[in-house]
Design a protein that fits this description.
The complex is a heterodimer of chains A (368) and B (249). By secondary structure, chain A is mainly alpha-helical. Chain A contains 15 helices and 4 strands. In chain A, strand 1, helix 3 and strand 2 form a beta-alpha-beta unit. Chain A is elongated, with a radius of gyration of 27 Å. In chain B, helix 3 packs across helix 4 and helix 8 packs across helix 9. The chains are: A mainly alpha (368), B alpha/beta (249). Chains A and B meet through helix 1 and helix 9 of A and helix 2, strand 6 and helix 3 of B.
Chain lengths: 368, 249
């Protein structure tokens, strides 16, 4: 046991002496949260739009007012003809246009059915989708209100914000993604590199000749990175709560327990890579291309898995980050307890166990 | 000096990798306190033989004991009784001199008090008092090698395996290094040394020369020279090794 402590102490020396790497390790999650939180947000604010109002009646007015009241849109011009609208689109001055037909309120009142046109600049498909969603939800609100008015005439409650804002928030989705990404990077890559480094420098041989058990050599390598990764989880969660105002709805304990499980998955993966590779460069490349890329592509964090071809959907199932992403999203955003995520947890445990057995096997073969 | 108590004993020790016979039925004994030179061209099978004796690699057939322990079943005990220094520099460059000594002493199970006494003594003997808290990476190569050797015998093993310990070291440091080897031998430690330098082979009590996985010659340097009628060790080595079919591997 004493030997184990000595070994872990030495690993901490390695980690703490390499200032540059340490800075990256601690700074990276903070930088990523800030970048994803503020720069790469897919939430669109103050988009410039025009309204072509041929109706100029109460219904069209109230919808326009609601849109103007939301801070997602900034109405450039109230009245405009079709030609002017097209020119504005071409010049990129506006992102979206609303066109009300002449008898908008009439249609609504007498036929219970009215149409209006929402035209978006789809050269940027993501923001176009987001903006049309915003508009439809504002119109839906108005419609709901009208219906309520018809049933109970004295109950008009302007609940514009309350009704749509929570649904359209952009921040929560990427926090679990960043978490998976950072843990992948720290645990897989750093563990793999630190073990392969000993192989490269020749110290691994000396360790293997010593009475210290080979499995313990590997295990004690994992401990400092487990700790560092947990610190990263904590810093990401704290940043998300205090900087991005995305609270943890579920249990903190569960969140950290699941994170520890995923870190162990990553550490095992890192150990596996380190057994299979001979140089630090190869270990780094394998970790980046083989692990980080699938994490970004198949976790569902950047690209929705449901839209992928079936073959790729199948592949996504063996990417551990996908399951972790689902777990963290459920705990943090939906506030789900273990009863809602036990299936994902079991799958993650299974992947970890499999990796562990494979690593142990190949480690023994290498020793022969 | 040497007594005839064998500390390494092998009998037809063989290691195969598929069809390739890395080490082919080697039989030899090494005695307590002896400096045993283990020579051979690259690819002759030295490293494989040494790995088997260190308990890192399981022999395919044959028998061997190291420090009285069997290489098949008692690798754990073997590891406790040997020291090892590889041709690559084997200390941690990002740890200080003192931390390296403490770490390697520690994994051999020395307790804190032993560690303190031993590391102080070692630093004093090597004259490294002012460098004790410096990173090993900042030391000159010669000092690193001397330190690595001292660390490998810190736990007072029965046998130390030195795999080309003086590669890339200047002649003056090499001489000092050999003085340390002699000093260790005089304390009863057995030294098993591989080298490519023939002048170093002359320093050994006995040497063996491996060619293509077999031991082709074994004896004192003087004895081998007489037997093969060569004036120098260079000649002896060349005469035996030129027939080799295996090159670098």
């Amino acid at each position: 046991m004493n030997q184990f402590a000595i070994f872990i102490k030495k690993e901490f020396f390695h980690v703490l002496r390499d200032r540059r790497t340490l800075l990256i390790l601690v700074g990276m999650p903070i930088a990523q949260i800030l970048i994803f939180g503020f720069a790469l947000t897919n939430e669109v604010k103050n988009a410039r739009i025009v309204v072509v109002d041929h109706a100029k009646d109460n219904a069209s007015r109230s919808i326009i007012n609601r849109i103007a009241a939301s801070n997602y849109f900034e109405i450039q011009a109230d009245v405009m003809d079709r030609d002017g609208m097209e020119t504005a689109f071409r010049a990129g001055d506006i992102k979206l246009a609303l066109v009300f037909p002449p008898s908008f309120e009439d249609n609504l009142a007498h036929q219970n059915h009215a149409q209006l046109q929402v035209i978006a600049d789809a050269s940027d498909p993501n923001s176009a989708t987001t903006l049309t969603n915003y508009v439809s939800s504002i119109i839906r609100d108005y419609q709901t209100e009208l219906n309520e008015q018809a049933a109970l005439p004295y109950q008009i409650a302007p609940q514009i914000r309350m009704l749509y804002n929570p649904l359209l928030k952009g921040a929560p989705n990427f926090v679990p993604g960043v978490m998976a990404l950072v843990l992948m990077l720290v645990s897989v890559m750093m563990t793999a590199i630190s073990i392969v480094r000993e192989k490269e420098t020749g110290t691994m041989e000396v360790l293997l000749v010593s009475p210290f058990k080979p499995a313990w050599v590997i295990l004690s390598k994992a401990v400092p990175y487990l700790l560092l990764s947990l610190i990263n989880v904590l810093s990401i969660v704290l940043m998300s709560v205090f900087v991005l105002q995305v609270p943890v709805k579920g249990s903190w304990l569960l969140l950290f327990a699941e994170s520890t499980l995923f870190i162990i998955t990553c550490l095992t993966l890192g150990i596996f890579i380190s057994i299979k590779t001979k140089t630090q460069q190869v270990a780094m490349l394998v970790s980046l291309m083989g692990m980080l890329l699938p994490t970004v592509m198949f976790s569902g964090f950047m690209f929705p898995i449901a839209n992928m071809p079936v073959f790729l959907q199948w592949i996504s199932n063996i990417v551990p980050a996908k399951w972790f992403y689902i777990i963290v999203k459920s705990i943090m955003i939906k506030g789900v307890g273990i009863e809602g995520i036990w299936k994902e947890t079991v799958i993650l445990c299974g992947i970890t166990l499999l990796l562990f057995i494979v690593s142990l096997k190949s480690f023994k073969i290498r020793l022969q | 000096m040497t007594s005839l108590e064998p500390v390494i004993k092998t009998e037809k020790l063989t290691k195969r990798f598929g069809d390739f016979i890395a080490t082919n039925e080697i039989t030899f004994e090494v005695y307590k306190g002896e400096i045993f030179g283990f020579l051979g061209a690259n690819g002759a099978g030295k490293t494989t033989a040494m790995r088997m004796l260190c308990g890192l690699s399981r022999p395919t057939s044959g028998k061997a004991t190291v420090a009285g322990f069997d290489v098949y079943r008692q690798t754990e005990q073997i590891k406790r009784h040997i020291g090892y220094m590889s041709q690559k520099f084997s200390l941690y460059e990002d740890l200080t001199v003192l931390e390296n000594i403490r770490f390697f002493g520690g994994i051999y199970g020395l307790n804190n008090q032993q560690l303190r006494v031993k590391s102080d003594g070692l630093i004093e003997r090597l004259g490294l008092q002012s460098e004790a808290k410096k990173l090993v990476g900042d030391l000159p190569l010669g000092w690193k090698q001397k330190l690595a050797f001292s660390v490998s015998i810190l736990h007072e093993p029965d046998i130390v395996f030195l795999d080309e310990p003086t590669g890339g070291v200047d002649p003056v440091t090499r001489r000092q290094f050999w003085a340390m080897i002699y000093e260790a031998a005089s304390r009863g430690i057995t030294l098993f040394v591989t080298t490519h330098y023939m002048d170093e082979a002359e320093y050994c009590h006995r040497i063996s020369i491996m060619v293509d996985g077999r031991i082709e010659a074994l004896g004192t340097p003087a004895g081998l020279k007489t037997k093969l009628k060569e004036p120098s060790m260079d000649g002896v080595f060349y005469q035996l090794a030129r027939g080799a079919k295996r090159g670098d591997s």
